[in-house]
Amino acid sequence: MKINETFRAELDGAVLCWLATVDGDGMPNVTPKEIFTVHDEETLVVADIMSSNSVRNIGGQPRACLSFVDVFRQRGFKAAGSARIIAQDDPNFERFAAGLIDLAGPDYPVRNVIALRIEKISRIWAPSYQLFPERSEGERMAEAFRRYRVRPNAE
C-alpha cells in the first residue's frame, strides 16, 4: 500500500510511535520508538537502538503494526504489514539506515533497521471527532492543552 502525503506529513510531525509485534507464544509486545521515518512509498523504517524483544519477535513472526498519534490534534494513523530486520552486515543496511542514522545522531547507534512493508493503513481518530463533529481543530487542540495541562509554544 502506498503512503500518501497526509500520512507522510503527519508521520514527519510525530515525535513518538508505537511498534507492536508478537512473540512465538502469541504474547503481544508494544514499545515506543523515537527514531522512525518513511523509507519509500510502501515502507517505514524504525531504528533498533535497544529493541531486542521487537527484533526477536519479528524474526519469528514478521507481522507487525506501527501507530502514531498527535495528542493535541487527536488523530493519527496505524500501519500494518510485514516487517523484516536489516542487520548491519546486510548489503542494504546503509540504504535503509541513512535517514535513521541522521535522526539518531552520534549518541544513539542504530544496531539494526526494522523495515515495515505496509499492507494496510488506517486512520486513528479520537472519539471526539464523532461525538463533537462541529468542533474545529483549534477547539480540539485547546481542549487537549487544557486536559494535559500544557501550553502551546508561542512560536
TrEMBL record:
SUPFAM superfamilies to which the protein is assigned, alphabetical: FMN-binding split barrel (SSF50475)
Pfam families: PNPOx_N
Domain Pyridoxamine 5'-phosphate oxidase N-terminal: start-end pairs: 4-122
UniProt-listed InterPro entries: Pyridox_Oxase_N, Split_barrel_FMN-bd
Coiled-coil ranges per UniProt: none
Origin superkingdom: Bacteria
Name of this chain's protein: Pyridoxamine 5'-phosphate oxidase family protein
